[in-house]
Amino acid sequence: xMNRILLAAVLAVSAAMSGCxxxxxxxxxxxxTPTIKTRVTGLHFDSGDQVGLSILKGADAYVTNHPMTYEGxxxxxxxxxxxxxxxxxxxxxxxxxxxxxxxxxxxxxxxDQTGGYASSDLLGAVKRDxxxxxxxxxxxxxxxxxxxxxxxxxxxxAAVASVSVGGLVPTATVDLTVPTAAAKAGAAVExxxxxxxxxGKSYRVILVPQQAALTVTVGTSDGKxxxxxxxAALLESGKQYDMSxxxxxxDISVSLSGDVSDWGDxxxxxxxxxxxxxxxxxxxxxYPTAKIGGRVWMAENLRYKPAGAVEGTDMWPxxxxxxxxxxxxxxxxxxxxxxxxxxxxxxxxxxxWHLPTAAEFESLIAAERPDGFLxxxxxxxxxxxxxxxxxxxxxxxxxxxxxxxxxxxxxxxAPAIKDxxxxxxxxxxxxxx
Length: 433
Hints:
Layout: E1 5-9, H1 19-24, E2 29-32, E3 50-57, E4 60-70, E5 75-81, E6 90-96, E7 106-108, E8 123-130, E9 137-143, E10 146-154, E11 160-168, E12 171-175, E13 180-183, E14 190-193, E15 195-198, E16 202-207, E17 210-220, E18 225-235, E19 239-247, E20 252-258, E21 264-265, E22 278-282, E23 285-292, E24 295-298, E25 315-317, E26 326-328, H2 330-334, E27 353-354, H3 358-366, E28 379-380, E29 386-387, E30 391-393, E31 403-409, E32 416-421, E33 431-432
Parallel strand pairs: 10-19, 19-21
Antiparallel strand pairs: 1-9, 2-5, 3-4, 3-6, 4-5, 6-8, 7-12, 8-9, 10-16, 11-14, 11-17, 12-13, 15-16, 17-18, 19-20, 22-23, 23-24, 25-26, 27-33, 28-29, 30-31, 31-32
């Protein structure tokens, strides 16, 4: 259930205390005394903060978008008094931040939130069947936008300079009588720059709730920028999400999930359905899988024999036997398909999986791996010579005309990326898209 901002809205109705007051026909003023449990910018309103208050008396507007200013202990509005009939009910609607242009039917988050994001955090509250009186009126304020916190693990040689989120509509249509908000139909998408909470480590941004392809871009001090897109990311109103981003010299990897904080639990937003760990069945073989560094890997070497491939020419069995997987050259593993624009290549991997990229190798090196994940199936050269004393994993990124980026390791050396000849044969672990 959506976490809520509890606002004990005390409508300070000063009943007529004397006959003199009755003769003066004095009306009590409307005040709101807030007690905030949680809020995006902290645990309190600041002096000078404003909300817009509207009061609907029956079908008629008693007051519309009246500014109420926080003065240290209460919100008050100059000249706002209760009506005469103490038995007539009304509906109170309030929102923050206040806009002098009127009660917002649309609301846009700031495209540049590097200086702060509070002005993009739209809050709404509704209380029905209210009658003037001295008893406090409790109003529940809801976050109507979505919040995304981006946590950076920087394994590159450059410092993180900026983080932005793109692919999303920045404008919402708003109905404060519910209250609710949704992305404006037909509006153009826009990149939103995130606020730096901890230098180089964590960033936060307020976004309009919607389902779309979310792209995070990390800029580094060497002038480079790396982007990654999560297809069909669902951001719900009033919920906050955490994104883990690993930056390498080559690329970035991301994972997105929900967490409970000041906002509601956003659940899981991964870029695919189902359990990311477990087993994968492909080509009459079953492979265990493991989630490492935000990616799901096959935990055993591929044993698949492509149709038409000739053993001893296009592939070799490992010297440790077929259970240790087949060894493939680059042409066989990619199916003759070249990578374009750095996009991963499916090759002979199952649908929804691909050959590892150099960035995914970097993340695998940096991450904690299950015991025994890296085995020693060796390699073979073009003449069939083999060496099983070292471990290799074939990658999908070419390096020059005749080399490919692979993972290399041994008992005496830590895993590292090395450029190997495309004609050599190596084990292959596929990675989930």
